[in-house]
UniProtKB/TrEMBL annotation:
This is HAD family phosphatase. InterPro entries: HAD-like_sf (IPR036412), HAD-SF_hydro_IA (IPR006439), HAD_2 (IPR041492), HAD_sf (IPR023214), PGP-like_dom2 (IPR023198).
């Protein structure tokens, strides 16, 4: 089926911030004399900050340090976003320029809160490429619920089934599928399980491969 719009996740797909976020959690835990395991950090990929807190609260060795852990994490992370580098994922600029040349509507669908999402898009200079940005602040339920992507499609006035979503995380891909959209997964930190990969339109090694696939679908 042809597509009429592209919806893109932000963290881990367009900008290389998942590593920054993970390090902020490590630093916050270290300051409090505890640690967060790598498996636990992997489970946070693609979740909103509030969902991350709920997940960490379930771990007895961490729950005693909340909300100090959450506060320190935000401080470390915001400091990096405001004053440090925000690296782009390879191929994102070429992909967005191609979408612009083809006049394909596109929007951001991110589990990040609105003000922080705008900061990231402005500092990474990606904001001008998008007609709309839908964040966790704009919906009742964040990923893996479908709300963010359904809202993005509505703002673009495109039927969900005519949208293709680009995602790096399992939670984000689940949100796209729940919205009755096709999804291309470009893994960042965590590879999708086989069950998720089977439901995806494709699993691409990078954004260059994703752009090539979108062009093939467009030409077909």
């Amino acid at each position: 089926m042809p597509y009429d719009a592209i919806l893109l996740d932000m963290d881990g797909l367009m900008i290389d911030t998942e590593q920054l976020c993970a390090q902020a959690w490590r630093d916050a835990a270290s300051e409090l004399g505890t640690r967060i395991g790598e498996d636990t950090l992997h489970q946070l990929v693609g979740l909103s900050h509030q969902h991350c807190l709920r997940y960490l609260q379930q771990h007895p060795e961490l729950s005693a340090h909340m909300p100090a852990l959450a506060l320190l994490n935000r401080q470390y992370y915001h400091q990096q976003l405001q004053h440090g580098d925000i690296p782009l994922k390879p191929g994102i600029t070429a992909l967005l320029e191609w979408l612009q040349q083809q006049a394909i509507p596109c929007a951001v669908g991110t589990a990040t809160e609105g003000p922080l999402a705008q900061l990231k898009l402005q500092r990474s200079q990606l904001a001008p490429y998008f007609q709309h940005v839908v964040s966790a602040s704009d919906v009742a339920n964040s990923k893996p619920a479908p709300d963010i992507y359904l809202a993005a499609a509505a703002r673009l006035q495109v039927e969900p089934a005519r949208c293709i979503v680009l995602e790096d995380s399992v939670h984000g891909a689940s949100a796209a599928l729940a919205a009755n959209m096709r999804v291309i997964i470009v893994p960042d930190i965590v590879q999708p399980p086989a069950s998720m990969a089977k439901q995806a339109l494709a699993v691409c090694k990078d954004l260059f491969a994703a752009r090539a696939l979108l062009q093939q679908l467009r030409d077909a």
